[in-house]
Design goal:
The chain has 13 helices and no strands. It is an all-alpha fold and 392 residues long. The C terminus is likely disordered.
C-alpha cells in the first residue's frame, strides 16, 4: 500500500502511532499486500492485452487522452511491483528489517532498502495521481479543441517533474539532518505528509469539477452537430458521464481509507499516551483502515481498467496485427474534394459550406470519440449517427 507511514517507519525513533500500525500483524499485513497487488497486477495486464475475436479498439487517431490512460495503468503496475518486492523482503528476511530499529547500527542496507522501496511506491502512485489530473484537464481541452498529441510533452514535464520534486522535498525534510534524527518533531513529518497527499487531494477536488464541465461541453457539441439532440447522442453523452463517474468512484474507494487512517493516526499522535483505554476504539479503527489500505490501494490498477475500458475478456491474442484506424479511411473517402460527385450547376459557396460543415462535424466526432475510447458500442453508434457516415 502507499502511505507516508512507510517512510516514517524507516526512522529508528519513529512515533508511537507509526509503531502501532507497522507492528500490528506484520506478516498478515505483508501477505495481504502481496496478494492484493499480485491479483491486481495480473488482471491489469490481462485487461490491457489484445483479445481474440474482438475488433481493435477504435480510436480517431493517436490521442493524448488514450496515452494518459495507458500511463496511469503503467504507474499502477510499477507501483504494484514495488509493493510485492517490498512486502516479500519483509516476509522473507524479518531479521534484515529488524535492524532498522537499531539507532547506532553500522549496517545501512536495511535503512537504504526501507527508504528506497518506500520512495519507489510513493513516487509511482503520486505520478499516477498527477496523470489522472492531467486526464481531466485533457478531456476538457479536447472538447474545447484546445488539445492535441503535442500537449503530452507538457503533461510529462508537469507530472514527472512535480512528482519527483514533491517526493524528494518531502523525504529531505523528513530525514533532515540525518536518518537517525528524523521524526523528532512534527516539523519534520508534517511537510512530508503535505507533499504526499497534495496530489491526492487535488484529484479529489479538481477532477469532479473538470469532469462536470467536460460533460456540459460534450452535450453542447452533440446538440450543435446537427442542430438536434437525438436518442443516440443523449445515450452517448450519458455513457461519457458514467465513465467519469466510475473513474472518480474507483479513486474514492481506493484512497478514502488512507485519509481516514491518517486522520486517526494524527489524532493518536497528539495524545500523551495512545495506549489509554478511552482511545481503544480509535486504535481499532486505525488498525482496521490500515488493513483495508493494504487491500484497496494495490487494486486501483485493475479497477481503473474496468472504469476505462470495461471488462475486455479472458481470451488473449498475442499475435501482432496492424490496427486499422477507421477515421483515416473515412475522412480520406468523404472529406476529399471528389468524395461524392456533385451536379455541375452547384454553386461554389454552397460547396465550400458543405466542406466546412463536414470538417467541423468530423472534428466534433473525433473529440467525442477520444473521450469514449475503449467503448466499442459508443464508437459504433457515433459512427452511424455521424453526418460523414451518412454521406453528407
Amino acid at each position: 500500500m502507499a502511505s507516508p507511514r512507510l517512510e516514517t517507519y524507516c526512522c529508528p525513533n519513529r512515533d508511537a502511532a507509526t509503531q502501532l500500525v507497522m507492528n500490528f500483524q506484520p506478516e498478515v499485513f505483508c501477505g495481504v499486500c502481496i496478494g492484493s497487488a499480485s491479483i491486481s497486477l495480473l488482471l491489469t495486464i490481462l485487461q490491457l492485452l489484445p483479445k481474440k475475436g474482438q475488433s481493435p479498439r477504435k480510436m480517431p487517431k493517436a490521442s493524448s487522452s488514450s496515452t494518459i490512460l495507458l500511463l496511469i495503468s503503467i504507474c499502477d503496475i510499477l507501483g504494484g511491483l514495488g509493493m510485492i518486492f517490498r512486502s516479500s523482503v519483509w516476509l522473507g528476511f524479518p531479521g534484515f528489517i529488524a535492524n532498522i530499529s537499531v539507532v547506532n547500527g553500522t549496517d545501512m542496507w536495511p535503512s537504504t532498502f526501507c527508504v528506497g522501496s518506500a520512495m519507489w511506491i510513493q513516487l509511482l502512485y503520486s505520478a499516477g495521481f498527477w496523470w489522472l489530473f492531467c486526464y481531466a484537464v485533457d478531456s476538457y481541452l479536447v472538447v474545447r479543441r484546445s488539445a492535441g498529441l503535442s500537449t503530452i510533452v507538457l503533461y510529462h514535464m508537469m507530472t514527472w517533474g512535480l512528482a519527483v520534486l514533491l517526493c524528494v522535498e518531502g523525504i529531505a525534510l523528513l530525514y533532515y539532518p540525518s536518518l537517525s534524527s528524523c521524526e523528532n518533531g512534527l516539523e519534520h513529518a508534517i511537510p512530508h505528509y503535505i507533499t504526499t497527499y497534495a496530489p491526492l487531494l487535488l484529484v479529489l477536488v479538481a477532477n469532479p469539477i473538470l469532469f462536470r464541465r467536460t460533460v456540459s461541453a460534450v452535450a453542447s457539441l452533440l446538440k450543435g452537430r446537427q442542430g438536434i439532440y437525438t436518442e443516440n447522442e443523449r445515450r452517448l453523452g450519458t455513457e461519457i458521464q458514467m465513465r467519469f463517474f466510475k473513474i472518480m468512484l474507483v479513486f474514492v474507494i481506493c484512497w478514502s481509507s488512507n485519509i481516514i487512517n491518517e486522520t486517526l493516526l494524527f489524532y493518536l499522535e497528539m495524545q500523551p499516551d495512545i495506549n489509554e483505554m478511552p482511545l481503544k476504539n480509535i486504535r481499532s479503527a486505525a488498525l482496521i483502515t490500515w488493513i483495508i489500505m493494504g487491500v484497496l490501494n494495490p487494486m486501483q490498477g485493475f479497477l481503473f481498467t474496468l472504469a476505462f475500458y470495461g471488462w475486455t475478456g479472458w481470451r488473449v491474442d498475442l499475435k501482432w496485427r496492424k490496427r486499422e484506424i477507421p477515421w483515416e479511411s473515412m475522412s480520406s473517402s468523404t472529406v476529399g474534394e471528389n468524395a461524392y460527385p456533385s451536379p455541375v450547376n452547384y454553386q461554389s459557396n454552397i460547396h465550400d459550406s458543405k466542406k466546412i460543415s463536414t470538417t467541423d462535424s468530423q472534428q466534433t466526432d473525433e473529440a467525442i470519440s477520444m473521450l469514449s475510447e475503449g467503448n466499442t458500442s459508443s464508437d459504433e453508434r457515433l459512427t452511424r449517427s455521424s453526418p460523414i457516415y451518412q454521406g453528407w
